[in-house]
Amino acid sequence: MKQTLSAALSARGYTNLTAVQEAVTEPGLEGADLLVSAQTGSGKTVSFGLAIAPTLLGEAESFGYAGAPLALVIAPTRELALQVRHELTWLYKETGAVLASCVGGMDARAERRALERGAHIVVATPGRLCDHLRRGAIDLSQLRAVVLDEADEMLDLGFRDDLETILEASPESRQTLLFSATVSPEIARLAKRYQRDAQRISTQSGTSQHTDIDYRAVMVADHDEENAITNLLRFHEPPNAIVFANTRAAVARLVTRLTNRGFAVVSLSGELTQSERSHALQAMRDGRARICVATDVAARGIDLPNLDLVIHAELPQSEEALLHRSGRTGRAGRKGISALIVPPRARNRAERMLRAAKVTAEWEPGPSAEAVLARDEARLLADPVWAEPAAETETATLAALLAQRSPEQLALAMMRLWRGQRSAPEELESIAPRVAPGAGFGPSRWFSIPIGRISKASPKWLMPKVCEAGGITRNEIGAIRIFDDESFVEVSANVLDHFLEALGPTGEIAPGLRLTLLEGVPEEVRNAGTGRPGAGRKPGFKPKFGGKPGKSFGGKSFGEKSYGDKPHGDKPAPKGPRKPRPEGDFSERPTKPAYKGDRADKPSGDKFAKPARKGGWEPRDGAKPKAKYAPKGPAKAGKPYKGKKG
């Protein structure tokens, strides 16, 4: 490692390198193309700064004259690009490096002037860099190294064409480094096309993600989602926290709600200007705000100090988004908490997402109001202010308080002042624990029936059939699960012998419908979630015709019968040979003779230009004409109407 870089790390307080930093600085990898996958917050910026240093500096310890850029670092968002520039500035401070940035939302004219003055390292976003490239404001011919930071994010944001344009304009002899949280097939194709014999480096565990992050799945009622967020913030009281929402409208709603509850809140969403975003982040850094409510896109690349809590007000769209969100905390050896707000309707989706992300979450209810107040009491008693001696300026006031108030009054006032500075906790509705199929019903056995949703089967139709055939009541039936071609019924083990005896050897509950006793819980039921009558139906499914199964069309489906032998239902096919078809082409049959009578002498031309008839309506076939004005009511036909005389 260069002495100038080692000195910068020591001045920054580094005693040991992270796993990814050690991996990219191995002696055998100097100048090599690298494809690196490492989790967010693992020190990637410093790692690629160390990796490209030998390529940029060579044998020297510092840079010379700044002309065309020697290194190019591309990041998906302006926040991440500015953060990367900040990190590289202190890392390369002793080398005399000149850094420039080209990011969207900033003054493009100032960026062009900085490029004209010269820079050793340029940090840019893809769109703005392509603008400068098309205008001829940047020269990439001298590039020695190109770094794509968060390459997977840039592809997700639609920057593939811009990245290809930039890489095509760069020298082929460059060193190319791709850093990505995940190596998707698209990332692999990009690496194969633009890297030469890239070395694959991965510092992620194959079995777990984010070992410094404690994942919590907070189960709340549907109407308590925002109340649970309030209680989580009050219970943990982190130095800084970020709350993720999926839409700008949800961000605005949460900001209003939390502000009304007394929290110091800022927001990050796509509608903010760059100046507003910078002010919001600065408020979080200097302590004027403690909570940031943001969308995924707006929060990409931000690095907030002491961020100990991440709350997912709404579940992310994918497991990759979950990892990116959660990666805002648990950095640089600090422990963090990632809490997912999970209402009952989102339980299955949350479980699938956690499995796909290879993380384990602790399922728990939201902090109750009593738990928050108890945590307040513990924090109050543990406050270091109790151990501080009284200052000289406080002695007189202390004596006056002790003379005028009892210890109980002083303690009560202290407690009220402490709680008055904080938002009151919310009362949360308790959530019943989730049970497996059949739990709480007692010992039971499952039966299968070869009829399902496609045939319009429903619990309403199946339950009376099963009860009648088995001689039991609905109280002895547990869950009924309906699937496309098959259904499952749970029967209490206490009445199993009586039920099987009543069914008889055939086990039929209706003609052609036979119950089959199963061993254990069916796999379909286990994978579908909790078992309750009708739970297997798709959302919005509504049986027609009173919930009865649809009428089948005979023993075979139409597709299994030969052509010409497809009767409706079980009706027999018509016997005997078909009626012979007349021979010859249709053109050989006699045609209808042409009409040879007189035709109306109608004028040619526009049919709407014919003159109107005279005399009004004319009778047909000798019918008697009506009077010009017919009387109203039952008057005799043909009689002229005579009005009343004055």
TrEMBL record:
SUPFAM superfamilies, per database record: P-loop containing nucleoside triphosphate hydrolases
Comp. bias intervals (Gly residues): 547-557
Coiled-coil regions, chain positions: none
Q: Where does this protein have compositionally biased stretches of type Basic and acidic residues?
A: 558-573, 580-624
Q: Which UniProt keywords apply?
A: ATP-binding, Helicase, Hydrolase, Nucleotide-binding
Segments of this protein annotated with the region Disordered: 525-646
Where does this protein have compositionally biased stretches of type Low complexity?
536-546, 628-638
- Which region is the signal sequence? none
Q: Which InterPro entries match?
A: DbpA/CsdA_RNA-bd_dom (IPR005580), DEAD/DEAH_box_helicase_dom (IPR011545), DEAD/DEAH_RhlB (IPR044742), DEAD_box_RNA_helicase (IPR050079), Helicase_ATP-bd (IPR014001), Helicase_C-like (IPR001650), Nucleotide-bd_a/b_plait_sf (IPR012677), P-loop_NTPase (IPR027417)
Which residue intervals define the domain Helicase ATP-binding in the entry?
A: 25-201
PANTHER family per record:
ATP-DEPENDENT RNA HELICASE DBPA, ATP-DEPENDENT RNA HELICASE RHLE-RELATED
Q: Which family does the similarity line name?
A: Belongs to the DEAD box helicase family.
**Official protein name in the record:** ATP-dependent RNA helicase
Kindly list the organism's lineage.
Answer: Bacteria, Pseudomonadati, Pseudomonadota, Alphaproteobacteria, Rhodobacterales
